[in-house]
Fold these 2 entries.
Entry 1:
Amino acid sequence: MSIRNEAVEQAYREHWARLLALLTAELRDLDLAEESLQDAFATAVSSWPPVPANPPAWLLTAARRRAVDRLRRTAVATRKLPLLVVEEQPAHDDRLRLIFTCCHPALSMEARVALTLRCVGGLTTRQIARMFLVGEATMAARITRAKKKISQAGIPFRVPAGPELRERLDGVLAVLYLIFTEGYAATEGDALIRDETASEAITLARMLVSLLPDESEVRALQALMMLHHARRHARVGSDGRLVTLAEQDRSLWRHQEIEEALALLAPGPPGPYLLQAAIAAEHTSAARAQDTDWTAIAALYGMLEELTGSAVVRLNHAVAVAEASGPEAGLAMLDGLEAELPHHHLLPATRAELLRRLGRTEEAVTEYGRALALVGTQQEREFLLSRRTETERGLRP
Amino acid sequence: MKYAMLIYGDDKLWEQATPEQAEQTRAAHERFIAMLSQRGAFLGGDALAGSRETVSLRKKDGHVLRTDGPYLETVEHLGGFYLIEAENLDEAIGYAKACPEQIVEVRPVVEYQE
């Protein structure tokens, strides 16, 4: 929506998700609810000011009226899609049902991401398309297909209960984290879009925290994203190159955001997000790179590795151990990782770095060669090349 | 809503089952059907004969091409189906989880309105 009406913009930010969730429960049709609400906001753009005393109530009435109009216009015969299955769940905020419906595992991951940004985040199709570097028509088709599947497959508008809740909540968190990391990965070049995507993911996490305040993993996810995002201005140098954590100018970090993130972290059962947030917190609370508590970080990675069994986590664990207890100890932990990470350039790159520190120069040069054969981005290639040249220079008498 | 649960598996494994194993499978399905019926969810279902007993027809321009075997050449074939009534997809998936088979595809049935 290209709106230049401050009151409408504010109402949009504050009330979109809540109104859409409410209308969806009433109308039992996500598509109809979304279109009618969109119409209501468009009407508001032309008729505000005067701003009504109760903007959300005004918008809800307008949207209901538009829904009736739309239903009247489209003859009953053409509306073949079954109505949404809405369960009576007065204990839950309707927005929570909307989130669980948009993140249902029967939808593809792509569809979950797009639908969550559209319906819960209130972003326009054009904005979402720009974030994921696809055409607007492609994104519109993706969202339409997803809404159709919700209706046709009978994906319910409900918050899962009992043991199912835990599993499904993990799925919701994965969608939010994917929005965050995809934003970073897909649009590394365009800082503006990247920051917009990342802050949208944080906004969604903040909403989820307000809806499920007792879930420590939800709070941890918000904290984790904020801790990463607080370093956004220090991650890229003036020449456009990535700056490693150790070399970042820590005065460029947003310390107020870091404080807010740290305040979210409370002791809880050690889930994957809480452990990752705790690691990020260790990094951000060191005044200088050399003040980093690598022993604590290595212990946290150890717990994370035990929990996830992930080879990438083991690689990071080995790096932390090398920092805490020396390169030899780190190197030993990399043994046998080839089978699990055969195409990951960071494995030979890490091994090369540790061998270099141990003075095993020839082996290091070989490993840099392996890493260069696997590396994808130009920025990392340049970094590895300069590292290899430096190491080779050490070889000459 | 109505859903079809399509059961896939390797014909060979079904054929090679010992009488005891076959009996166990049959009993497991009977218990499953009893559970569905108790909840008013059972609308129908049957086991299908193996892919060797199958013939496929393809019609084009008035001609009928007949081939021996299933339409799709895969290791796992459609070996049976259930038709169930469920409140929503979550409930249907719950039933599919309880179904005593390894591969179960859940398909919503298109219901035409008058």
Note: DSSP finds three helices and six strands in chain B.
Entry 2:
Amino acid sequence: MAEILVLVDHVDGEVKKVTLELLTLARRLGEPAAVWVGPGYEGAKDKLAEYGAAKVYVAADEELTSYVVAPKAALLAQLVQSASPGAVLVSATGEGKEVAGRLAVKTGSGVLTDVVDVAEGFVGEHSIFGGAIIAHAKVTKGTPIIAVRPNAIAPEAAPAAPAEEQVSVTLSDADKAAKIVERVVQEKGERPDLTEAAIVVSGGRGVGSAENFKIIEDLADALGGAVGASRAATDAGWYPHQFQVGQTGKTVSPQLYIAVGISGAIQHRAGMQTSKTIVAINKDPEAPIFELVDYGVVGDLFQVAPQLTEEIKKRK
Amino acid sequence: MNIVVLVKQVPDTESPRKLKSEDSTLDRAAADGVINELDEYAIEEALRIKEAHGGEVTVLTMGPDKATDSIRKALAMGADKAVHLVDDALAGSDALQTSYAIQQVLGRTGFDLVVLGSESTDARTGLLAAMLAERLGVPQLSLANKVEINGTSITVQRQTDYGYDKVEATLPAVVSVVEKINEPRYPSFKGIMAAKKKPVETLGIADAGIDAGQVGLANAATAVVDFAEAPPRSKGEIVTDEGDGGIKIAEFLASKKFV
């Protein structure tokens, strides 16, 4: 069975959930081979084994994480050469897609981006145009490179004892052209990452001010979820832009999405339409968000949302 | 400084976006074409860099005839001239092929800086900046929310999930920008009038030295197998708040095991 390379997403040695999803998917497609880049593997190896990595390629050289994206693509290109994998899976995050792009050029391969599932023959399923159309696509040249949307696949543990192989790659000058001189971690508290969170609570125009976003944060915290915002809210400066859910922001696909004071314009729907369960609170009964919901309350968010937060706390 | 800004015309998100049944490519006739929103930030950033450091801003668009509308808008915002790569042979090209075609045109125009939006609102692949940097062998300064240039040094803040990375490089470079890096200007009346007289060079693939065997739907490295409209979501329950709306949602969430 051919190896399926999975580029591990990690922040300082902590494996991101999307990697466990990719390993789960890779098990269906072939023999999962995780590719670890950078320091910190020792602290993460148990996690990769738990989710069924049959092999781990470890490229521990810190230099590989000192430049933007290119070294990861160089390493993967080398592994594509030496291991002839059936496919390469990366997360469909900004960086994951960029690795895919460079790898595609290096190997002359096609890329599928933002895939929500992969069937036999490496046929990828895409949800496009804001979820309006489901399309299936495949790679016709080279080694399929597939960027998978976080939260699209349910991660399942399948303990394995991976073989470890230390690997290294010689970087070209071009690979070292964009040097990361500083990593700035902005305070996000204890909340999960927006794109990885199982529960997302988002606020929109109806929230009315930056101060009022506390209502959204309180509800998200009661549920252990992430906070998102519509474009109207980020444009108004009520919440930082990196939390914007929508066509020009993040695409999320959580188990539960709660839209508070969001009308549900197409621009927003494009970023959340594939959420499994959708709940909305809005004072306008005609708001298009109600076309998507599993449960909706027409009412004043300043009454309904705090009451919901209190009720959740009571039930804990 | 020779700044090339990549501009794509995309179907308006507000109009019906469809794929054509015969070849699964975008039905450009079904929707109004508009400038890709994130490209407006790229144009603005290019103009600001020119205003601070001098030089010239060239708009580069690959797309059908009607993409001229988007080119004119970019010129009206203040770009100096444009190159329009238009050829039937390019139709249906995927990201890998598009990056090749644009690389060829950039070989003609030359560049110190290529600026583009981080993704388009139609295909949303977010691949082009990385592919171009790889092909051109120049620094990839992508997902930038801040750009600073000092002589031939360039520093950007690269947006990440945890905050940002500060990235340094030397020109020439490819920069992709995210939303909110700036506030794109509206074209002034004067700008709109001036745009009509600005030069737009139209190139076919032969003019740009593009190999016909490497572009177009038939030669793409990816293929759409099939597509269908997504099944509509089943209609949910909608209630009007009568003082217990929050409790009712909590009950719903409990029934779904979220609380």
Note: Chain A has two domains: 3-176, 199-315.
